[in-house]
UniProtKB/TrEMBL annotation:
<keyword id="KW-0436">Ligase</keyword>
<dbReference type="InterPro" id="IPR005479">
    <property type="entry name" value="CPAse_ATP-bd"/>
</dbReference>
<dbReference type="InterPro" id="IPR000089">
    <property type="entry name" value="Biotin_lipoyl"/>
</dbReference>
<feature type="domain" description="Biotin carboxylation">
    <location>
        <begin position="1"/>
        <end position="451"/>
    </location>
</feature>
<dbReference type="InterPro" id="IPR041265">
    <property type="entry name" value="PCC_BT"/>
</dbReference>
<dbReference type="InterPro" id="IPR011053">
    <property type="entry name" value="Single_hybrid_motif"/>
</dbReference>
<dbReference type="GO" id="GO:0046872">
    <property type="term" value="F:metal ion binding"/>
</dbReference>
<dbReference type="InterPro" id="IPR050856">
    <property type="entry name" value="Biotin_carboxylase_complex"/>
</dbReference>
<feature type="domain" description="Lipoyl-binding">
    <location>
        <begin position="590"/>
        <end position="666"/>
    </location>
</feature>
<dbReference type="InterPro" id="IPR011054">
    <property type="entry name" value="Rudment_hybrid_motif"/>
</dbReference>
<dbReference type="InterPro" id="IPR005482">
    <property type="entry name" value="Biotin_COase_C"/>
</dbReference>
<dbReference type="Pfam" id="PF18140">
    <property type="entry name" value="PCC_BT"/>
</dbReference>
<keyword id="KW-0442">Lipid degradation</keyword>
<feature type="domain" description="ATP-grasp">
    <location>
        <begin position="120"/>
        <end position="317"/>
    </location>
</feature>
<dbReference type="GO" id="GO:0005524">
    <property type="term" value="F:ATP binding"/>
</dbReference>
<dbReference type="GO" id="GO:0004658">
    <property type="term" value="F:propionyl-CoA carboxylase activity"/>
</dbReference>
<dbReference type="InterPro" id="IPR005481">
    <property type="entry name" value="BC-like_N"/>
</dbReference>
């Protein structure tokens, strides 16, 4: 077995590979850019080598730098993770030429299947059903429009070397094709060093289902079940699960056997994923093959008990698969939430900065469920503008889908992040969504269920009652602290607090009485009492306890006269008053938000790529004003209404903070 491997990646996946290598007794080498000098994967590895500046094109995408790091440290093999160089035939070949083992498929398999254009040609030659599209090189926007007109709208424009939603656009008209073509080529070039794109028919109301395959260098290939990845935003997966609630055993077998046949046709010899677009009637079409480890591989690992990273390492070393198809059994259900540094209330725009608080839920057993958190960050660390915005992948596994979803909801409630914006409120809300719970999914789920964008849901019903009980219990705990403050005046009686409490929870009002019963605090609401037990300490960002004996977690932050709470996908400020305080609070004036209607604010920290207007120019609603790049994504900022440009305060190349003024309108 290898004694030392290098991980040609960063962040969460680098840490993930290091964990398995460490368990196998293999030493690891990390590589890092200027931006990642203090990153978690650098700290975890046995050795680390600096390979360049922060932009990926000047560090993680430089093949020569990776090979030099291998030679410098004596690493015998390289695991590429996902993204960056993981699907580059030239990288696998360069390693081979230098006597270094690539922990992934052979260069021929990457060439045949890793390139999305070539993979579709190979699939078509093998008579695999594919989505209608144009598989040749598209030279210009006009050429793209002609092709799209022939295929019929809507169409998808996709980077040939792409992944993770980068270099991908959906177009419903010729104008959108022309603009999407330019954006896709630009993003593909900056993210993958390859600006080729292709066009294919976009299937309406589809599901995205993929098959995990695993092959060795002795001709053996098996499939490890499927993953449902239909919950997507901007063609980037947000939630994944295994197995799929759509498939029956017969369809699963058909998809698996087709995936294996395709892998065998190109002598595939590592972990890989064959992706399908599936109709609600269980029909399916080959979409593409990812010749690497997928971001969402943990859900497959949880339901099969197979460590895919370990299998990749063993196969690369030349070992035969120790698993046959008959050995693969799907046990229970796994759900994964991708935790991103982005603001869901601002159309999911990226967010960067320091993780002032990073407290993930405890890993391990949670009743009948198991919690796993794959991450590459730490409290106090920095989320950079240069790379993918992923913070962590939170996975729960349980005997049933319902139990896995409930466990995921509890784990999200217990996940505290401060200092940046993040999407935990969004994925927590999805966990409570009836359509998600029913398994009635499609890739249009987010657009259909959140057509006006996402705003923090207000608590209702039982959720609101639970949050009110937690708020009163926290207020009572704080009052107990005040009663026990040291150095109080001698002989002075301790303050006696009113037991009646009024909670203003968003628009809802609750009245309750605090009754102490041993370790419990009973909150007596009209017609209902809730027994609260918790060892929460003021200042902790997550409240853990039980309500009427049921385990509950809630995110909690102090505010004036109360706490801000997040629980079960609902969020609200809970103001806790005595009767007299409530009367006085009702007389307080409300703060009026500042008018920002005459300025264009930068919606996220990023780099100004271009300014599309000039001072004095009249613009119509919908016209582009500027483009800001953040985390490898180009974001076009458009006019919300007709206006005249009065001042332009930013220029191309400026690095802006969130809410920085880009321009003013007359």
């Amino acid at each position: 077995m290898f004694t030392k491997i290098l991980i040609a990646n960063r962040g969460e996946i680098a840490c993930r590979v290091i964990k398995t290598a460490r368990r196998m007794g293999i030493k690891t080498v990390a590589v890092y850019s200027d931006a990642d000098r203090d990153a978690l994967h650098v700290e975890m590895a046995d050795e680390a080598v600096h390979i360049g500046a922060a932009p990926a094109a000047q560090s993680y995408l430089l093949i020569d730098k990776i090979i030099d790091a291998c030679k410098q440290t004596g690493a015998q093999a390289v695991h590429p993770g996902y993204g960056f160089l993981s699907e580059r035939e030239a990288f696998a070949q360069a390693l081979k030429d230098n006597g270094i083992v690539f922990i992934g498929p052979n260069p021929g398999a990457i060439a045949a299947m890793g390139d999305k254009i070539e993979s579709k040609k190979a699939a078509a030659a093998a008579k695999v059903s594919t989505v209608p599209g144009f598989l040749g090189i598209i030279e210009s926007p006009e050429h793209a429009v002609t092709i799209a007109d022939e295929i019929g709208y809507p169409v998808m424009i996709k980077a040939s070397a792409g992944g993770g939603g980068k270099g991908m656009r959906i177009a419903h008209s010729s104008d959108e094709v022309a603009e999407g073509f330019a954006r896709a080529k630009s993003e593909a070039a900056s993210s993958f060093g390859d600006d080729r794109v292709f066009v294919e028919k976009f299937i309406v109301d589809p599901r995205h289902i993929e098959i995990q395959v695993l092959g060795d260098k002795h001709g053996n290939v098996i499939y490890l079940g499927e993953r449902e990845c239909s919950i997507q935003r901007r063609n980037q997966k947000v939630l994944e699960e295994a197995p799929s609630p759509l498939l029956d055993e017969a369809t699963r077998r058909k998809m698996g056997e087709q995936a294996v046949a395709l892998a065998k046709a190109v002598n595939y010899d590592s972990a890989g994923t064959v992706e399908f677009v599936a109709g609600q009637d269980k029909s399916f079409y080959f979409l593409e093959m990812n010749t690497r480890l997928q971001v969402e591989h943990p859900v497959t690992e949880m339901v099969t008990g197979i460590d895919l990273v370990e299998q990749m390492i063993r196969v690369a070393y030349g070992e035969k698969l120790g698993i046959s198809q008959a050995d693969v059994k799907l046990d229970g259900w796994a759900v994964e939430s991708r935790v991103y540094a982005e603001d869901p209330t601002r159309n999911f725009l990226p967010s960067t900065g320091r993780l002032v608080t990073y407290r993930p839920p405890s890993e391990g057993p949670d009743g009948e469920a198991t919690v796993r958190n794959d991450t590459g960050v730490f409290e106090g660390g920095e989320i950079s503008i240069y790379y993918d915005p992923m913070i962590a992948k939170l996975v729960t596994h349980a005997p049933t889908r319902e139990a896995a979803i409930k466990a995921q909801g509890r784990a999200l409630d217990a996940f505290a992040i401060d200092g940046i914006r993040h999407n935990i409120p969004f994925v927590a809300a999805v966990m409570q969504h009836p359509r998600w719970i029913a398994g009635n999914l499609s890739t249009g789920f987010i657009a259909e269920e959140f057509p006006e964008g996402f705003s923090l849901p207000a608590p209702k019903g039982e959720t609101a009652l639970r949050m009110a009980a937690i708020a009163i219990a926290c207020d009572h705990k704080l009052n107990q602290r005040k009663r026990n403050v040291s150095a109080q005046m001698e002989g002075w009686r301790k303050v006696a607090f009113d037991r009646q409490r009024i909670v203003q929870l968003g628009p809802e009002r609750f009245e309750g009485e605090v009754i102490e019963q041993g370790e419990a605090v009973v909150i007596a609401f009209p017609g209902r009492s809730v027994s609260v037990v918790s060892d929460w300490i003021p200042g902790e960002p997550v409240w853990h306890g039980t309500l009427d004996g049921v385990k509950v977690a809630a995110q909690i932050r102090p505010i004036l006269n109360g706490v801000a709470l997040g629980h079960a996908g609902a969020y609200a400020d809970a103001h806790v008053y005595t009767q007299r305080e409530a009367e006085l609070a009702a007389l307080m004036p409300e703060k009026v938000a500042a008018d920002t209607g005459k300025v264009l604010l930068c919606p996220m920290p990023g780099l100004v790529k271009s300014i599309a207007v000039t001072v004095g120019q009249e613009v119509k609603a919908g016209e582009p004003l500027a483009m800001v790049e953040a985390m490898k994504m180009e974001n076009v900022l458009r006019a919300e209404k007709d206006a005249t440009i009065a001042k332009i305060l930013a220029k191309e190349g400026d690095s802006l903070a969130v809410d920085a003024v880009i321009m003013e309108f007359a």
